[in-house]
Design brief:
10 strands; 2 domains; 6-stranded mixed beta sheet; 22 helices; two-stranded antiparallel sheet
Length: about 525
């Protein structure tokens, strides 16, 4: 391959599905993402947290630059995911569907991005199959219906790669390079340094495939400084307001995720490689199995051909898996920005498989694989809402709040921080915990709606309870049935027998006023 040659064959506008077929297909994917997205409550802890913060932004006088979680300033993420969710709440009301709308939006952006890239580099037919595989990856479908920053991050990163591909197609067009800068910056405002992982993979892919046109279109010597410059204003403003956040941002949030995060999240070095087989089901295991059966008919070529076989999308996936495996902090959602590019790799492999099997066998294989995902999706949409009250720590607080209202509760003390409870029950919630989630020493964590903090330590709890003037005060304890999970309320209940006791799922309710 000459240095100036494209990494793959030039796309043809004639091959693959028609525009009408594309439109119908995309409509079907949108329905798959959106249908019944509000049918289950907001799962703890992530969805509850990511809904609590934007809901607080809608309160009168709220400062949108300083996210607040249950009254305390919360700096774990840049504010874009909270802003988008707050706008969704304002437009559609504070409900589950509106909470998940940013993730659904991110999924559609990611679909658009991977389709755009596939169309520009490989042609219309590969684009169609890339969209199909991406939209029906288990991880992608599930997180498109789950409130977190990861899908919005994935959408912006995918559009950033797509704008690069368009700039490359147009000989390094500066307008699309600038669009890529904006997309990568929005990704940074969504989840900061996580946005740089797929960008690093794109850069390595361009170098490995000796794609000089791609390197000129990427302009990394301008792009990275531009992202850092446009992505830094919020951090600089927070450091200007609160100088002590320097240790938080650079210690806990940056170095901590590499060497050992305060929240744990550890895993073996092979964690993401192993988990990808499950997260990128049904396509990854199905295609690997099919390739093993047909391996003699599917020559991969020599090592020199490997970079062009992988394409930049393959290097995005491999680089991302390696980087995420080397850092200490690990969660299943971290690999989501790699999923669209894994889908493109799988789509190309799928079409190579089609060349060595009969049309009937290919239709049966693809139909069965998509059917598996749809069957699992339907099962999840039906079963999850029905199991809300028995899912333990990840249980949505919707049935808990409904039970409390049924019992006539006006004020609640709960011995874990279930931040979604404020969404469903209201502000009269206190969390009895060893320590409050204070990230600044000067932050009192006062809730504007109550004039007091949502948190009380085990020692402070009796005095807080004594200050209650009304009736309908209930204590709520999450009981997982294990002896190492005693309720901090037990000493108080021994001295002050409860007026009533109820149980729902893994939760005990005691009325004390």
């Amino acid at each position: 391959m000459s240095p100036e040659a494209p990494t793959n064959r030039p796309p043809s506008s004639a091959d693959g599905p028609t525009t009408r077929q594309f439109a119908l297909f995309l409509l079907g994917l949108a329905v798959l993402f959106i249908a019944f997205a509000g049918s289950r409550g907001l799962n703890e802890p992530d969805e509850g947290r990511y809904a609590n913060i934007p809901a607080a932004m809608l309160e009168p006088g709220a400062d949108w630059l300083e996210p607040r979680l249950s009254g305390f300033a919360h700096y774990d993420k840049p504010p874009l995911i909270y802003w988008v969710t707050a706008i969704s709440f304002r437009a559609f009301g504070v409900n589950e569907w509106a909470a998940r709308a940013p993730s659904m939006l991110g999924a559609l952006l990611a679909i658009a991005g991977v389709g755009w890239v596939a169309r520009r580099i490989y042609g219309r037919e590969v684009a169609f199959w890339a969209l199909l595989v991406c939209g029906t990856l288990g991880q992608f479908w599930f997180l498109a219906r789950f409130l977190s920053p990861d899908m919005l991050l994935t959408g912006f990163c995918s559009l950033g790669v797509a704008a690069w591909a368009e700039s490359r197609h147009r000989g390094g067009d500066w307008k699309f390079w600038f669009l890529s800068l904006i997309c990568w910056t929005l990704a940074w405002w969504t989840k900061a340094t996580a946005a740089l992982v797929p960008l690093l993979g794109l850069f390595i892919g361009v170098l490995a495939t000796r794609d000089r046109a791609g390197l000129r279109a990427l302009r990394p010597w301008f792009l990275l400084p531009g992202i850092l410059a446009l992505g830094s204003p919020w951090y600089l403003e927070m450091l200007h307001r609160h100088a002590e956040l320097k240790d938080f941002f650079f210690g806990r949030e940056l170095a901590g995720r590499v060497t050992g995060h305060a929240d744990g999240r550890r895993g073996k070095i092979y964690y993401h490689f192993a988990l990808s087989f499950a997260l990128w089901a049904p396509w990854l295991p199905a295609l690997l199995g099919a390739w093993l059966v047909k391996r003699r008919q599917l020559p991969l070529g020599g090592w020199r051909a490997l970079p062009s076989r992988l394409g930049v999308e393959g290097f995005i996936v491999l680089t991302g898996l390696i980087v995420l495996s080397l850092i200490s902090s690990k969660l299943p959602s971290y690999t989501l920005p790699l999923a669209p590019w894994a889908a493109l790799v799988l789509a190309r492999g799928l079409l190579r498989l089609r060349a060595v099997v009969s049309p009937a066998a290919f239709r049966g294989f693809t139909g069965a694989t998509v059917g598996i995902l749809i069957a699992l999706a339907v099962a999840v949409m039906i079963v999850m809402p029905r199991r809300e009250a028995s899912l333990g720590l990840s249980s949505p607080m919707r049935p808990i709040a409904a039970k409390l209202r049924e019992l006539g509760a006006t004020s609640v003390y709960v011995d874990r921080h279930f931040s979604g409870l404020e969404i469903y029950f209201g502000p009269r919630v206190r969390y009895v915990v060893p320590r409050a989630p204070q990230q600044r020493s000067d932050d009192a964590g006062i809730c504007a709606a109550t004039g007091d903090t949502h948190f009380a330590t085990f020692e402070e709890f009796p005095a807080k309870l004594a200050g209650e003037t009304g009736t309908g005060v209930w204590l709520v304890h999450y009981d997982n049935g294990k002896p190492n999970n005693p309720s901090p309320f037990l000493p108080y209940l021994k001295a002050h027998p409860p007026l009533a006791h109820e149980r729902l799922g893994d939760f005990d309710f005691w009325r004390v006023r």
